[in-house]
Amino acid sequence: MDRIVIQGGARLNGRIAISGAKNSALKLMAAALLTDEPLILTNMPRLADSRFMGHLLARLGLRVEEGPGAQMQLHADEITDTFAPYDLVRKMRATFNVLGPLVAREGRARVSLPGGCAIGARPVDLHLKALETLGAQITLEEGYVDARAPAGGLVGGEVDLPFASVGATEHTMLAAALARGETVIENAAREPEIADLAACLTAMGAEVEGAGSSTIRIQGRERLKGVTHAVVGDRIETATYALAVAAAGGDVVLDGAVWAHNKALWNAMNEAGVTVQPVEGGVRVERNGARVKGVDIETQPYPGFPTDAQAQFMALMTTAEGTSVIRETIFENRFMHAPELTRLGADISVNGNEAVVRGVPRLKGAPVMATDLRASVSLVIAGLAAEGETVVNRVYHLDRGFERLEAKLSGCGARIERQSEPAES
Ligand SMILES: CC(=O)N[C@H]1[C@@H](OP(=O)(O)OP(=O)(O)OC[C@H]2O[C@@H](n3ccc(=O)[nH]c3=O)[C@H](O)[C@@H]2O)O[C@H](CO)[C@@H](O)[C@@H]1O
Ligand SMILES: C=C(OP(=O)(O)O)C(=O)O
């Protein structure tokens, strides 16, 4: 198993190219199930998660080919299987989103309940209720969801989400694109990834209105067509590198970052004393000199502060002047990085969904364990800011969602490398 070794203390200077968003790319890949024509995705991030989603789709009969550059072609001219087994679904959340498209196109599917980062209970009740509203008959058995469409296929309906779930909104959109008539989603999630999926489905022939607002209307079509679609830039990767520069100090332009997608983060970083500004084609982040100041944040659905950047923000706050209160409201178990940050000398106390971070003048490198995707990268950020050597173990979590992390950071002067762990004797 690989590990990441960081010699902390180097400032970051230069440019980092932001990849396509993992959390958009995976749902766009699921959209390929909706058409018998090829779907070509450009600006695709090359990640363990996208490869894994590719394996699942190949198992269902799709031809999945990685093209030159950041391109991927997915072709579902025929769906040969509607069964998504546990082994291909358990590792990540987005695989579950094949259920709706399969039922919409093939009339039935059997899909394992999903996995994903262990940051909370993460039920799928809202996904299932939405599919039932579109007419699917659902049974749960032995860890699998069995779904069947009525004769004549799924029919549009009114889906009122009690919580603005990202996954349930996307899942409903995917199924509704091939359902008869109109589907209206109330209290829809408003994340940029939703707008990205809406743009792709619209290009494929469905009519999707209101993505980015709380009410989304989808006119389904009997048939959708293949298109070429560019995946939106990754706002969480953007947030991560912005916070890495803030923690380590330096001056970096994040090429391909979308300023408008991270407003809540920019406000918090400004308040902490970091200079962030939009520049042509990206975002520039600078911190030279003074320590950052402690800032309170609370995670919220978009456009609020993203839960996927909470761990990275906490890493920055560990060396702030003053105290920062960090409240996590989306997932009930998303502070697993706190005890690991403490190994580096951070002063953090967690009480329920609140973490109080009392800034210390400096961190000192230590061996730490990655527990989930964003927690892992928060340890990398802390390691970059710390004195001495930090070793981040169990980095397979990182590889799920960060493309060429060491190369991107070392290109800006970080002393970071990947090592293969010696086999245990
Ligand atoms: C692959 C992907 O895109 N993952 C992202 C997606 O996850 P995901 O789509 O799982 O997140 P949701 O917005 O659905 O979940 C938010 C909250 O709603 C709860 N819930 C959700 C669905 C449901 O049927 N029932 C239910 O109770 C969840 O347990 C959680 O507490 O959005 C999250 C919130 O921005 C991000 O942290 C994840 O990185
Ligand atoms: C939690 C994440 O992913 P998943 O939903 O696949 O667990 C994430 O991207 O931070």
UniProtKB/TrEMBL annotation:
EC identifiers of the protein: 2.5.1.7
Entry binding sites for phosphoenolpyruvate: K22, N23
Reaction equation(s) it catalyzes: phosphoenolpyruvate + UDP-N-acetyl-alpha-D-glucosamine = UDP-N-acetyl-3-O-(1-carboxyvinyl)-alpha-D-glucosamine + phosphate
Enolpyruvate transferase domain mapped to chain residues: 6-409
Record function comment: Cell wall formation. Adds enolpyruvyl to UDP-N-acetylglucosamine.
Catalytic residues (positions): C117
Pfam family for this entry, one: EPSP_synthase
Family matches, as InterPro entries: Enolpyruvate_Tfrase_dom (IPR001986), Enolpyruvate_Tfrase_sf (IPR036968), MurA_subfamily (IPR050068), RNA3'P_cycl/enolpyr_Trfase_a/b (IPR013792), UDP_GlcNAc_COvinyl_MurA (IPR005750)
HAMAP family membership: MurA (MF_00111)
Protein name per its UniProtKB record: UDP-N-acetylglucosamine 1-carboxyvinyltransferase
PANTHER family the UniProt entry points to: UDP-N-ACETYLGLUCOSAMINE 1-CARBOXYVINYLTRANSFERASE
GO-annotated biological processes: cell division; cell wall organization; peptidoglycan biosynthetic process; regulation of cell shape; UDP-N-acetylgalactosamine biosynthetic process
Pathway terms, separated by semicolons: Cell wall biogenesis; peptidoglycan biosynthesis
Subcellular location: Cytoplasm
Similarity field: Belongs to the EPSP synthase family. MurA subfamily.
Highest classification ranks of the organism: Bacteria, Pseudomonadati, Pseudomonadota, Alphaproteobacteria, Maricaulales
